[in-house]
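Memo to structure team: turn this sequence into structure tokens by end of day. - J.P.
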Amino acid sequence: MDYLIKLFFSLSLFLSIFLLFGEINGVEGSHQNHHLYAFRPTKLFVFGDSYADTGNIRKSLASSWKFPYGITFPGKPAGRFSDGRVATDFLAKFVGIKSPIPFFWKDFAGKKRLQYGMNFAYGGTGVFNTQSPLPNMTTQINIFQNLLKVGDIYSPSQLTSSVALVSVAGNDYSTFIAQNRSASEFPAFIKQVVDQIEVNLRRLHALGVKKIVVPSLQPLGCLPRITFASSFQRCNDSRNALVILHNNLLNQVVAKLNNETKQSTFVILDLYNAFLTVFKNKGANPGSTTFESPLKPCCLGVSAEFNCGSVDANGVKKYTICDNPKSAFFWDGLHPTEEGWRSVYSVLRRSLTASLIKV
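Reply from structure team:
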């Protein structure tokens, strides 16, 4: 508790200084030309973590390959960290293409299936190293770049109608906290994370990707692993203060990059406010579903642990599942349900149309 109190005051002070000097800007920055005329995405390339992974992580390393993951879609565990579809699937559907094949399965897919792009995201990864031996985002982009060099699947000329999703869902920060680092170090570390994201975005643009979608960080203080302490009733303000700083720095980076490219190449996907809008079911674009207890997960450990999918030595389940996953926003301690993601994307639909595919 003392750690969280110190963290809250440290971040509050840092944010106050930022605000005093007018450093916090809007999502799109000063460049307001959101439209890339006649742009119709045909390929989606995905980089990131479990919010975007659709089957890259090996079965031995993740609960996402265990029952009850995947019970809504595809009806069995398939590597997605949810009961069904995740962010990648909904973005692909939004732009009108099939969800891209995971890199791990590329050799088992036909050429036609590969034409929609590829997913390089691995659950548990971050901008920096979070879980060895899983590839961080830099390594994921290296894999993509090597594919382009070989040229037998994709060539740089094919990227003129491509979109990239760059998903960062907080693994760098959970790793930082697990290392018992001082709360006073947090602001500097957040800047390191965002600076590296900028490097990654520049690399993808230099490789020829036409549009790059960058989700803001969701309210980490509202994840069930955190709200468990309040019986899933309240978000943690100190964790969300961390997120606000991350997102404001990210907004500055995107605004700067768009001013450089002059085409609004980079698009912020405002997960932070979309999540909160769905939780409250209020605002101009409320979610498609009203969740009675949005902070409570559907799949919950029988003790204070979040071990969805785990069984004991006798095969007895160490978790319980709610009667209807569609009634829950969160699936487990960290990840939304398919219905949760559907609601988030219903909130984001208008801004995505304006910034990504409107002609």
